Amino acid sequence: MDTLDLLLHPVRLRIVHAMSGGRVRTTADLCARMSDIPKTSVYRHVGLLADAGVLEVVDEQRVHGAVERHYRLRQKRTTIDAETAASMSLDDHRQGFTSAMAALHAEFNAYLDRDGADPTADLVGYRQLVLWLSHDELAEMMADLREVLAARWGNAPAPGRTPHLASAIVFPAEDRQEGRDPASPRS
Fold first, then answer.
1. Cα torsion for 131, 137, 140, 146, to the nearest 10°?
2. CA-CA-CA-CA torsion sign (124, 128, 132, 134)
3. Cα dihedral 100, 103, 106, 109 in deg (nearest 10)
4. Fewer beta carbons within 10 angstroms: which end of the chain, N or C?
5. How far apart are CA 125 and CA 102, in angstroms?
6. In whole angstroms, what is the distance from residue 6 CA to residue 12 CA?
7. Chain centroid, CA 9 distance in Å
8. Would you call 59 helix, strand, or coil by DSSP?
9. DSSP-assigned letter for residue 72
């Protein structure tokens, strides 16, 4: 299975999210965390991620006659490199976006279903806005965002820290011709 097929799946994306931060978890832990997904599906997807080297076994223990594996995420195996991203077809992008949105929707519902969920106190935010940007302004904004986020990507789990799922979605809202300055000459 190639990297795109492996990572651009909503259940596998949720497993990757659940394993982030250097956490070690068993498949049973993941099943408990993602109770909306059938256990057989979680086990199957963990197996696929382990076979591909995205998850590594860090410990094995016998539990009631079965072997229980403890997994850790190999973070470097969870990224789609620039060359692969550049080779993605429009359908690959469509599938990737759909998978990311399905995973995001499921994670948000799981958050809302938790006892004590309080979007206001938890500083939950979701908003959409239209920004009018030139290509250079967009590139500058994306670099600024990467810098802000990169300063925190390395944070490990620690007392007082909880994982937060952040999604940045940026794409042109109109065809370039539709969004041109009305005062500019037509091409």
1. 20
2. positive
3. -60
4. C
5. 18
6. 7
7. 10
8. strand
9. E
Using left for φ > 0, alpha for ψ between -120 and 50, and beta otherwise, residue 160 falls in left
Angstrom CA distances, 96 to 6, 56, 90, 130, 146, stand at 11, 24, 10, 22, 20
Residue-wise pLDDT for 82-117, tens only, equals 898 899 999 999 999 999 999 999 999 989 998 999
Confidence of residue 18 (pLDDT cuts 50, 70, 90): very high
Residue 62 CB partners (closer than 8 Å, separation 6+): 68
CA 76/CA 12 separation, integer angstroms:
15
Torsion of CA 176, 177, 182, 186, to 10 degrees: 130
- 88 sits in the region (left: phi over 0; alpha: psi -120 to 50; else beta) called beta
- The residue among 75, 37, 32 whose CA lies nearest residue 56 is 75
